[in-house]
């Protein structure tokens, strides 16, 4: 059997970080990232003056030569004191340019040729604006090409680290973010909400609305769909639900240390330990919110959606996806309960 080789990403050959105007700590941080030029592909993050000290202090030396490895290292740092404002801003610009730069899109075209032809929606995406990579992230569960899956998995981690990088999310939810006071939406502005708190705030607003606890602001339908879609896309890997990940890191180590990540297994393990006395309240609350989202749309539970997939086909549960989420849950679950496996997983 041939040994599978890894994808050689543009960043492995010294990718750029951000435009020249962000090259020093003294650079004006208020400049919008949406007006910057395309990045240069010559600098490693560890060589950037404003980030060098943080990276050397926080990341293992064997990650320094790979910008993606450095990003993965720094994504696990939640405390604002861990990373300086200047470095945080530079990282945001790097990630934004990373998701929109044609060079990274060209890598996707090269390593995902078969996948792109198989997924019509992605094949029809306009090139050069980052839409292709975002589309492949949306459909990553259907990717069978090894190198393509490897590449898109890396890009998924980056995109889900900040709600502003998720395609179309800010446009659809901008008004609701402001109305619910969920946090800043100014591009490039550093705030603690950029790591998942904004989405968590919107999810809580959606839950309160469904439970009729708060009728002062009704979340727009497009934003509701975007919130549920993000919850669905993060259902297989709890690392992608940034708010829950940070709330439950210690609980995961305490209760689910030997549980392999992926396939929704960590979620399921944490759900099983939700009422343990040693479970932290912040993790319990985050799990409760996610369970209430599952009550609105079964697809937010990876294990439930997977277990019920064949039953939905068998009993022809082709429910219109345009129905409100609660309607989809009831209609799908009615068919699904015929399977003992589904009813067990649903608990």
UniProtKB/TrEMBL annotation:
GO CC aspect terms: Golgi membrane
Subcellular location: Golgi outpost; Membrane
Keywords on record: Glycoprotein, Membrane, Repeat, Sialic acid, Signal, Transmembrane, Transmembrane helix
GO-annotated molecular function: fibroblast growth factor binding
Annotated Cys-rich GLG repeat ranges: 143-210, 218-278
Membrane topology summary: Single-pass type I membrane protein
Domain of life: Eukaryota
PROSITE patterns linked: GLG1_C_RICH (PS51289)
Protein name per UniProt: Golgi apparatus protein 1
């Amino acid at each position: 059997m041939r040994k599978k080789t890894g994808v050689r990403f543009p960043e492995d050959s010294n990718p750029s970080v951000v435009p020249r105007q962000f090259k020093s700590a003294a650079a004006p941080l208020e400049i919008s990232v949406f007006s910057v030029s395309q990045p240069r592909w010559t600098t490693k993050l560890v060589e950037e003056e404003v980030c060098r000290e943080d990276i050397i202090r926080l990341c293992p030396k064997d990650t320094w030569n790979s910008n993606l490895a450095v990003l993965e290292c720094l994504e696990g740092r939640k405390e604002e004191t861990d990373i300086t404002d200047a470095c945080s801003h530079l990282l945001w610009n790097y990630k934004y340019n990373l998701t929109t730069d044609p060079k990274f899109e060209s890598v996707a075209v090269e390593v995902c040729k078969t996948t792109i032809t198989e997924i019509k929606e992605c094949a029809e995406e306009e090139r050069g604006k980052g839409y292709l990579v975002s589309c492949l992230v949306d459909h990553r569960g259907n990717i069978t090409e090894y190198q393509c899956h490897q590449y898109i998995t890396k890009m998924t981690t980056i995109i889900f680290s900040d709600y502003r990088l998720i395609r179309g999310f800010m446009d659809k939810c901008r008004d609701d973010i402001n109305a619910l006071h969920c946090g800043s939406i100014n591009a490039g502005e550093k705030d603690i909400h950029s790591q998942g708190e904004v989405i968590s705030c919107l999810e809580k607003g959606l839950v309160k609305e469904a439970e009729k606890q708060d009728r002062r602001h009704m979340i727009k339908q497009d934003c509701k769909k975007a919130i549920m879609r993000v919850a669905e896309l993060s259902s297989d890997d709890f690392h992608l639900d940034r708010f829950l990940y940070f709330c439950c890191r210690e609980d995961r180590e305490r209760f689910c240390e030997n549980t392999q990540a992926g396939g929704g297994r960590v979620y399921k393990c944490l759900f099983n330990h939700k009422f343990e006395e040693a479970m932290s309240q912040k993790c319990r609350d985050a799990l409760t919110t996610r369970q209430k989202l599952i009550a609105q749309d079964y697809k937010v539970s990876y294990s439930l959606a997977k277990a019920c997939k064949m039953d939905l086909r068998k009993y022809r549960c082709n429910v219109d996806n345009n129905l409100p989420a609660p309607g989809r849950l009831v209609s799908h679950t009615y068919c699904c309960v015929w399977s003992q496996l589904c009813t067990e997983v649903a608990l």
